[in-house]
From TrEMBL:
It comes from the Bacteria. The active site is at 40 (proton acceptor), 208 (proton donor). GO terms for molecular function: hydrolase activity, hydrolyzing O-glycosyl compounds. GO terms for biological process: xylan catabolic process. The record marks 144 as: Important for catalytic activity, responsible for pKa modulation of the active site Glu and correct orientation of both the proton donor and substrate. PROSITE patterns: PROKAR_LIPOPROTEIN. The keyword Transferase does not apply. It holds the Pfam family Glyco_hydro_43. The keyword Hydrolase applies. This is 1,4-beta-xylanase. SUPFAM superfamilies: Arabinanase/levansucrase/invertase. InterPro entries: Glyco_hydro_43, Glyco_hydro_beta-prop_sf, Glycosyl_Hydrlase_43_Enz. It comes from Fodinibius salipaludis.
Length: 329
């Protein structure tokens, strides 16, 4: 997540025609493939189709779709490629970290705007996502909010709270998503482990980007640490016996940090593919010298038990999937 840095993360390479007579540079070959440039990527599986959303523009939230996770089409959002357009919701800039959930026949987009939490709805995963009453969920600086619905139907929200840097907090949500139950607000995670205290500039006191899973009665959370623009931005893992209970960070952390030639790997989310296999999606810096535009990556994941423990740890499987989209220009 970025802090008051304006970006346009979807950058498409412009390809000119060689002559007025040759109107298609790619007449004898397939169009070139380029990365899906998203920060804070999130993938929703709808039947046999995958939708990817992420941080890319101050105009709103774009969406891409795919049948195989490798080849993507778009942007396919209902409003000029945007699934959520700023004209339909609260705010003018800093549209970050979207997550989309399909609940009771309606699609809910949780997104950050101007460093506040907001929720919009749509009847279609491509949008348009709108707010009848353009507003934020809570009048407090918070980003990266994530919805978790427990087996008993209780709704929880987790988010990065601007307090002593960025900390992860959690709370119960009203059933209609209208408000946070303030009396349940609980600090969940804050900077503590050595790997979260990188000295590579820029330096930040950061725990953010929460995502919660439940398995065998235990709750698990992935989160990101270090400044998002640091090459040591990475992903950690924690577990708890209750949604708002005492969370313990894994001794195996980080679960992802600078794999292969990537740097700045963070802000993860989990999803299951059409074959019910668990995957993780996350972003990395453009390269070792530039942060933006950030690129999305996907890996299959297995949750495996630690030795002499029943705690599950994500095993990140190779190879990673690099989402690509064909340029039609």
């Amino acid at each position: 997540m970025e802090y008051k840095i304006l970006i346009v993360a979807f950058i498409f390479v412009a390809f000119g025609c060689q002559s007025e007579q040759n109107t298609s540079q790619f007449a004898d070959q397939a169009p070139p493939e380029i990365n899906v440039f998203f920060g804070d990527p999130y993938i929703l599986t709808v039947g046999d189709t995958y939708y990817m959303y992420g941080t890319s523009s101050d105009t709103g939230i774009e969406a891409y779709k795919s049948e195989d996770l490798q080849n993507w089409e778009g942007p396919v959002g209902a409003t000029g490629g945007f699934a959520l357009h700023k004209s339909d919701v609260y705010g003018e800039q800093w549209f970050w970290a979207p997550e989309v959930y399909h609940i009771d026949g309606k699609y809910y987009m949780f997104f950050s705007v101007e460093e506040h939490m907001a929720i919009a709805t749509s009847d279609n995963p491509e949008g348009p996502f709108t707010q009848e009453d353009p507003s934020v969920l809570r009048d407090h600086k918070s980003i990266d909010h994530h919805l978790f619905v427990d087996e008993d139907g209780t709704k929880y929200i987790y988010f990065a709270n601007f307090k002593d840097g960025l900390e992860i907090w959690g709370a119960e949500l009203e059933d209609d998503f209208s408000a946070i139950k303030e009396e349940t607000l609980t600090k969940v995670l804050s900077q503590s482990q050595d790997w979260e205290k990188s000295k590579k500039k820029p330096v930040g006191t950061v725990n953010e980007g929460p995502y919660v899973l439940k398995k065998d009665g235990r709750y698990y959370m992935s989160y990101s640490a270090n400044h998002y623009a640091s090459q040591d931005y990475g992903i950690g893992w924690a577990y708890a016996g209750e949604p708002l209970g005492d969370w313990t960070k894994s001794d195996e952390n980080p679960i992802i940090q600078n794999p292969d030639s990537l740097v700045g790997t963070g802000h993860s989310a989990f999803f299951r593919d059409k074959n019910d296999k668990l995957h993780i999606v996350y972003h990395a810096h453009f390269d070792t010298t530039e942060v933006h535009p950030r690129k999305g990556y996907i890996n299959e994941v297995e949750l495996v038990k630690q030795e002499e423990s029943d705690i599950l740890i994500p095993q990140i499987l190779s190879p990673k999937i690099i989402p690509k989209v064909q340029s039609e220009k």
